[in-house]
């Protein structure tokens, strides 16, 4: 009988150990390691880019660094493209995504979002001599887009049947396709149009119409409730004390809109 009770006790202790492992979460792992891995796409200036010393910079990098500092851990940059941002969370390569990631119902099915910290407007752009003023007028046209972005999803769902979408892996590749004449019409984030025009004055693009305005949020792996709560608490505090507004204003020369500041 004593042997049986001892075996039961040992099994119970083992089960407790398994339960503890099962309940260990990302926030515990981050604090234990002293590092937080944050995915940021450096091909979307001024959210993510490289500076003149080829170091990561931009508003999303500044946001990631500020979050890491306040958590008391080291920021580790995880390079991603637009299409690989969410997979970086799902495969465990990153703890968070701070990478001009728009909140959409489709994405919310596979990852969790923090409260929004910034905004992004997506547009259709083309040279001045290309006359398109609406989604319907893209019928029969070839349109460049970046794979896995909100504008890719929107054009796929709402674009006319006669429109041909050409998908690129990142904004830089799409920009080169426009500059080289591979595509005339393309979807992008509004602030990238000016950046593109600076690179090649001989081939200028202009905004033809706005696709949508999106709230940007920090991506968290599903069911990491403690980490999500910690991130939400941080975003709320940094909106209140002006930190996130200062980061945004540094890159965009304007304040965050009320839709973010008055959440």
Can you describe what's shown?
The chain has 263 residues and is an alpha/beta fold. The protein folds into 2 domains: 26-117 and 217-252, Periplasmic binding protein-like II (D-Maltodextrin-Binding Protein, domain 2); 120-214, D-Maltodextrin-Binding Protein, domain 2 (3-Layer(aba) Sandwich). The protein has helices at 2-23, 26-33, 59-71, 85-90, 105-108, 150-158, 171-179, 190-199, 225-240, 243-252, 258-261, and strands spanning 35-40, 49-50, 56-57, 74-79, 96-97, 111-113, 118-126, 142-146, 164-168, 185-189, 206-216, 219-221. Strands 4-1-5-12-6 form a 5-stranded mixed β-sheet. Strands 9-8-10-7-11 form a 5-stranded mixed β-sheet, with helices on both faces. It has a two-stranded antiparallel ribbon with strand order 2-3. β8, α6 (150-158) and β9 form a beta-alpha-beta unit. The chain is globular and about 55 Å long.
Task: Report the average pLDDT across residues.
Answer: 90
In total, the number of domains comes to 2
Annotation field: number of helices:
11
CATH level 3 topology of the largest domain = D-Maltodextrin-Binding Protein, domain 2
State the helicity in percent bands.
40-55%
Strand order of the largest sheet: 4-1-5-12-6
Low-confidence stretches are 1-23
Principal-axes geometry comes out as: globular
Rg from Cα: 22 Å
State the end-to-end CA separation. 63 Å
Number of strands: 12
> Helix and strand succession?
HHEEEHEHEHEEEHEHEHEEHHH
What's the CATH first level of the largest domain? Alpha Beta
Largest sheet: 5 strands, mixed
């Amino acid at each position: 009988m004593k042997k049986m009770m001892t075996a039961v006790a040992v099994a119970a202790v083992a089960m407790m150990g398994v339960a503890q492992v099962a309940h260990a979460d990302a926030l515990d792992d981050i604090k234990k390691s002293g590092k937080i891995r944050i995915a940021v796409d450096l091909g979307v200036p001024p959210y993510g880019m490289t500076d003149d010393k080829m170091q990561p910079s931009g508003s999303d990098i500044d946001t990631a660094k500020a979050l890491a500092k306040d958590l008391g851990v080291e920021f580790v940059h995880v390079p991603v493209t637009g299409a690989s941002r969410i997979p970086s969370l799902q495969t465990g390569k990153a703890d968070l995504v701070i990478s001009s990631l728009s909140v959409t119902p489709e994405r919310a099915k596979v990852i969790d979002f923090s409260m929004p910290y910034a905004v992004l407007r997506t547009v259709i752009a083309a040279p001045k001599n290309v006359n398109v003023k609406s989604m319907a007028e893209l019928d029969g046209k070839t349109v460049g887009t970046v794979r896995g972005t909100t504008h890719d999803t929107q054009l796929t769902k709402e674009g006319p049947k006669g429109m041909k979408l050409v998908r690129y892996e990142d904004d830089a590749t799409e920009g080169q396709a426009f500059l080289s004449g591979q595509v005339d019409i393309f979807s992008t984030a509004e602030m990238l149009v000016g950046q593109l025009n600076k690179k090649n004055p001989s081939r200028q693009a202009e905004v033809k119409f706005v696709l949508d305005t999106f709230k940007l949020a920090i991506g968290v792996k599903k069911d990491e409730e403690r980490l999500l709560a910690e991130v939400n608490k941080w975003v709320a505090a940094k909106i209140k004390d002006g930190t996130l507004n200062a980061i945004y204003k540094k890159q965009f020369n304007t304040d965050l809109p009320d839709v973010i500041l008055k959440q």
